[in-house]
């Protein structure tokens, strides 16, 4: 199917314009001299300077990164275990409930997840702070990790594990020496996904955070509620820039690896 | 059918004193309500090259996976060198397997793939290196040691898989469709290489295949399987020349099956009443048939002679017309239709150029064969 | 043994932090509001043993659920959420399908780039993407300025803090969720099927309607649920882009909890929302399962 009609070209152009123009405008106005975000008054980077002076934002950013690193790491370990259990665990008691608990958080409205976790933390008398946010984020992002990893495990050639057992590995060794290195890319993308989800989350963090720990999205949300501000534009621009660089680098790296693998395979086929 | 007969006779299965390496005793394997292996008993001897042959779903792969330890028999026992191996996990068995997909570890290079099993045994570094080099040499892979599996060709990958599974010097090597992924030409070369390596290392090989030519070429004995049962276990030439059932005769090579009723003529000779208006056929058989018992005469096409005129002396003669000709280069198979509609195949070697072929479509011809040419089977 | 541990750890985690909290929500939804800490009664006192538990049970009731039916704020909010979710799902499909279709027909070497362009917004903060529209839709915003300059309108349109803004925001933020499954379905589609349809006498449009659309249906269904389900409980978009007239249940729940501090009612709102969601979630799971089976 490689016949682009005018209709395809138009829908792609308009679609991507719709996706990207708002962000472009956001970025452009972060360099606006004026306090009014909507009127152009000349180029300036003063809002970035002001942002760097803003203790509250910087503190919130630090808390957010801390929470994201901890929760995504924990979620990756738990999510990979859950994926392995789902794909390789065979039958066990309560398997249906388990798979339900893996998939439900993916479609659960954040307000419900947030509310229920908050009520739990209050019920067991756990003070709200970094720890409670980490627990909450780990719980919902481990499900995303598990979905990413199990979709890789499903296509994993089982005979590789059997070969490892056949050659003398215990099941744990087979996982460590064969399965894990091969599924590593999926585990890493699971971690990245969990990390981003944690960075992004407003609703669950709002429920589970306490006065001692405010994350960046909570800070942004309360600022934005009062209206548009160029400082937020500057902050957004920085965040968009980081993500863009990350995603483009990742896709270039994986593309190059794929091209190289293909070339090597073709070269190998020729030597027969 | 290139069965290579070695000069020294190797037939431990005929020696009642010989101890089998592997012993399946009344093994049954069920998956839920499906019976994959049904009360099967089989002995395999040391240094044998044993082939399990059958269509997909016949249970041959299950047999192999039970030997490797990935499945356990539901009933019965499997012994390896006199020891029941039912509860021995795969990583503790002196059995190695070469996987159909080769299962080469994509993140390790060829050298590390071969060394993988040795490292699990904590083999000293010097010995390990020597063993890997030896395996690389045996499989002619020295040049590729530092490459990753995706950087070598299919044939080379097949040899890596073989080297890796042989590296631990197992008592028994299992090969699951080892040549299935190779193209035909490479497959034939590799068959001989496999036999060479088997002879050099003296390892017992059990190969699973659905390719009868492959089984006949490489194996010392072939077990033909169907639906979880052993249909026949014998040397390749006996399987071909003396099939014990219509199933085996039909599964191995090309065959004409003529159904009829036997009546004893005397000695081991029977006459077969097989179709209205056709003369009786004569065949010899070591197994005895009752008068009027249904029988099947199996005759290989190459044992049927095709002539333009009625042969003067022949045990069995029928007349028909050439219905179809399959030209295979070295051979031609003639499909001859008899007046009652039966098709009988006759094969001749093409010693002449095709333009000077003796018969063509619709020619009336005579088919003849001797009384000992076919095998008389009860079922 | 090892296997048991492997199963037990994630299982226990999910039980403790996913299932048990729901039990608590359910329990509190049956309690009464009180000016106390925590702000509801009864609380279960384990020290009183079985009798205490019986007393505790007897004090639970469905009062809060009755309340939800009596005050029309709640059922209006549920209905309005359903309506907004449904309409915005349709809009997202109308925008997303042509894009996915265009991507699937684009030359092979462009596809990874187009794919990346769709995924990129997905990785950027949701909050920021919603915020971007605040500057565009406001009275002095970019859109009004552009329309005024073009002479399409005489005076600024009130867009921000309306349902229109909510629809735009939802379509914008959820578009990748619609495009990706449809693209995946179209990408798998064998091009020779279209050629076969045309060979058998279909026009291009007929081939599209009779072959492409039915074969991409699993993608359409998956994409629609991936938009519909989370939008139903959406909070950020209605609270930033919507106005006082925008009623969405996620926002109601939030305000009930944070502003009114009425935990039992907030819990009851959550329980009912969950009951509403069960149907689409089950349908979605069925669709995914069917697709997974078809692939095998």
UniProtKB/TrEMBL annotation, chain A:
Protein family per UniProt: Belongs to the binding-protein-dependent transport system permease family. CysTW subfamily.
UniProt cross-references to Pfam families, sorted A to Z: BPD_transp_1 (PF00528)
CC terms in the record's Gene Ontology section: plasma membrane
Protein name: Inner membrane ABC transporter permease protein YdcV
Residue span, ABC transmembrane type-1 domain: 61-253
Residue ranges of the TM segments: 7-31, 60-85, 97-124, 130-154, 174-194, 232-253
PANTHER family with a match to the protein in the record: PUTRESCINE TRANSPORT SYSTEM PERMEASE PROTEIN POTI
Alphabetized UniProt keyword annotations: Cell membrane, Membrane, Transmembrane, Transmembrane helix, Transport
Keyword ATP-binding: no
Compartments it resides in: Cell membrane
Underlying gene: ydcV_1
Membrane topology type: Multi-pass membrane protein
InterPro entries with a match to the protein in the record: Bact_Polyamine_Transport (IPR051789), MetI-like (IPR000515), MetI-like_sf (IPR035906)
GO-annotated biological processes: transmembrane transport
Lineage: Bacteria, Pseudomonadati, Pseudomonadota, Alphaproteobacteria, Rhodobacterales
TrEMBL record, chain B:
A single Gene Ontology CC term: ATP-binding cassette (ABC) transporter complex
Name recorded for this polypeptide: Spermidine/putrescine import ATP-binding protein PotA
Cited SMART domains: AAA
Any GO BP annotation: putrescine transport
Similarity field: Belongs to the ABC transporter superfamily. Spermidine/putrescine importer (TC 3.A.1.11.1) family.
Keyword annotations: ATP-binding, Cell inner membrane, Cell membrane, Hydrolase, Membrane, Nucleotide-binding, Translocase, Transport
PROSITE patterns: ABC_TRANSPORTER_1, ABC_TRANSPORTER_2
GO MF: ABC-type polyamine transporter activity; ATP binding; ATP hydrolysis activity
Enzyme class: translocase
Source organism (scientific name): Falsiruegeria mediterranea M17
InterPro entries recorded: AAA+_ATPase, ABC_SmlMolc_Importer, ABC_transporter-like_ATP-bd, ABC_transporter-like_CS, Mo/tungstate-bd_C_term_dom, P-loop_NTPase, PotA-like, Transp-assoc_OB_typ2
ABC transporter domain sequence ranges: 22-252
Name of the gene: potA_1
The reaction(s) this protein catalyses: ATP + H2O + polyamine-[polyamine-binding protein]Side 1 = ADP + phosphate + polyamineSide 2 + [polyamine-binding protein]Side 1
Keyword Cytoplasm part of the UniProt annotation: no
Function: Part of the ABC transporter complex PotABCD involved in spermidine/putrescine import. Responsible for energy coupling to the transport system.
This enzyme's EC code(s): 7.6.2.11
Phylogenetic placement of the source organism: Bacteria, Pseudomonadati, Pseudomonadota, Alphaproteobacteria, Rhodobacterales
Nucleotide-binding listed as a keyword: yes
Subunit annotation: The complex is composed of two ATP-binding proteins (PotA), two transmembrane proteins (PotB and PotC) and a solute-binding protein (PotD).
Automatic annotation (TrEMBL), chain C:
Family the UniProt entry places it in: Belongs to the binding-protein-dependent transport system permease family. CysTW subfamily.
Domain of life, source organism: Bacteria
InterPro entries on file: MetI-like, MetI-like_sf
GO biological process, one term: transmembrane transport
Key words, A-Z: Cell membrane, Membrane, Transmembrane, Transmembrane helix, Transport
GO cellular component labels: plasma membrane
Domain ABC transmembrane type-1 positions: 78-284
Membrane topology: Multi-pass membrane protein
Organism whose genome encodes this protein: Falsiruegeria mediterranea M17
Coiled coil spans: none
Keyword Transmembrane part of the UniProt annotation: yes
Record protein name field: Putrescine transport system permease protein PotH
Primary location recorded for the protein, binned into one broad class: membrane
Subcellular location: Cell membrane
Transmembrane segments: 12-30, 77-101, 113-134, 165-186, 265-284
Lineage: Bacteria, Pseudomonadati, Pseudomonadota, Alphaproteobacteria, Rhodobacterales
